[in-house]
Amino acid sequence: MRMKKWQQGVSPISVLVVGGLLGFVLLIGFRAVPAVNEYFAIQRIINKVADEGDGGASIADMRRSFERRGQIDDVVTVTGADLDIRKDGGKVVIDVEYSRKVPVVTNVSLLIDFKATTTGR
Asked: How confident is the model at residue 68 (pLDDT cuts 50, 70, 90)?
């Protein structure tokens, strides 16, 4: 008596399903890249501005410096007025929390919450 061998492999339907899911994940990833790049730019800028504050710059000067550097790096979500600037143990600490809405397709959007801080420098 001979046993039947089961076919192995991937069906066309499963290829379409997996391909569709991968495409959707890639779409979200590509749409989120500008928001993440802006976050890294904000993190870099507030570290430089905090160093200026440690050097004696006033809060108003630090806010203006953030605005100037933000224009260069194309930061549009956060302004100098959004920064929480304080002294902690003789060092300037800058925090900013913000949300960024990223359109995905038609009426579907991705909302990302960011928090940048200088406490770890």
From this structure: very high
φ, ψ for residue 11, nearest 5 deg: -80, 160
Listed in sequence order, the residues at least 6 apart from 107 whose beta carbon sits closer than 8 Å to its beta carbon are: none
- In a domain, residue 75? The reply is yes
1: pLDDT strictly greater than 80? no
Instruction: Give residue 2's pLDDT.
Output: 65
Q: Which pLDDT score is estimated for 11?
A: 87
Total count of domains within the chain: 1
In a domain, 41, yes or no: yes
Tokens of 16: 């379409």
> Does residue 91 fall inside a structural domain?
yes
Within a 10 A sphere around the Cβ of 119, how many other Cβ atoms? 10
Cβ–Cβ under 8 Å, residues 113 and 36: no
Question: Which pLDDT does position 41 carry in this prediction?
Answer: 97
Say if CB 30 and CB 103 are below 8 A apart. no
The residue range of the domain holding 112 is 37-117
d(CA 86, CA 92): 6
23 occurs within a structural domain: no
